[in-house]
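Lecture 7, part B: from sequences to assemblies.

Below are the input chains for today's worked example.
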Amino acid sequence: MAEIPLVFDAPKRGMPQKHFADLTHEERVSAVQELGLPKFRVDQIARHYYGRLEADPTTMTDLPAAAREKVRDALFPTLMTPVRQISTDGGDTTKTLWQLHDGTLLESVLMRYKDRATLCISSQAGCGMACPFCATGQGGIDRNLSTGEIVDQVRAAAATMAAEGSRLSNIVFMGMGEPLANYKRVMSAVRQITAPAPQGFGISQRNVTVSTVGLAPAIRRFADEGFSVTLAVSLHTPDDELRDTLVPVNNRWSVSEVLDAAKYYAEKSGRRVSIEYALIRDINDQGWRADMLGKKLHKALGPLVHVNLIPLNPTPGSKWDASPKERQDEFVRRVIAQGVPCTVRDTRGQEIAAACGQLAAEEK
Ligand code: SAH
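Predicted structure of the full complex, as structure tokens:
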């Protein structure tokens, strides 16, 4: 399978010092041995990090006292410092703004429901995909996140949930960035999120969703990894003419190429692909587009697809708006009439600019 084209490779400038979560098992073993520690310490440290959700070795009291600071300095640089935290939905939704070691800002959103807790994480600081309706896309890309910076968002939220006597159950890569443009680090993060403790956080693969603009070759490569993670494809319209402007990368991989790749993913993973569709008033919300969407998806993916409608969150200064409720209902009805399940996503966190596509780090 071809590598992701270089044009999507964000600058490496600003990557943090290597963290425990950036290393393979072998690299961890040599790192602790360099500190003069036996290799069983690797598993012990992993149990602290993935199992007890601790990121500071000075609190790992079963490590020899003299080794704790050395382990911290060599393997646990501070990756993220919380700058601000805002809550809404009666405290059920919290957005955290993090500052990275080089000053880069990034956001993650924790949503608590009755039966689950979902964390929306970022894979890049900013995004290079330039979708005109998305606040992050408007700001451009700062840099890729390191594996550790992705994984540590999960650790921090899992620790928050544990402190609340609950558990983090779901992860969606729907924060800032295009996950498949930071391919290797995102794959490593997915492995660490889903591996059972002490190799990972033990979150079920079925409860992890990777959302992409539709980098077709990367979707195929992702399918070949053999995960049963859910793939979400941000389609937003079934026709190339409009998609060329709504999701500019469509100029490179068209709707049919993206749907072919999605089908390959669905077949390999056995998971339904989720088609993301932000409904924008008078732009992509026409009844005929709903019919076309339903027909194309049914033809391309049969039963292996589900449409997730997202009422547009208007970004500041945008001329676009969400569709009226009746238009939305009609759209849902017409997609379903083509034999494709379609639901409207609940939009948590709107008042705190934590909803879909709004993670633009306002203080930038
Ligand atoms: N780059 C990836 C993941 C990040 S965005 C992707 O595009 O899939 C997560 C989802 O939010 C995507 O479906 C994206 O299109 C959608 N989104 C972005 N801005 C939005 C907005 N203003 N209103 C509603 N959805 C938006």
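Note for the exam: The domain at 20-76 is CATH 1.10.150.530 (DNA polymerase; domain 1). Keep this in mind when comparing with the next example.
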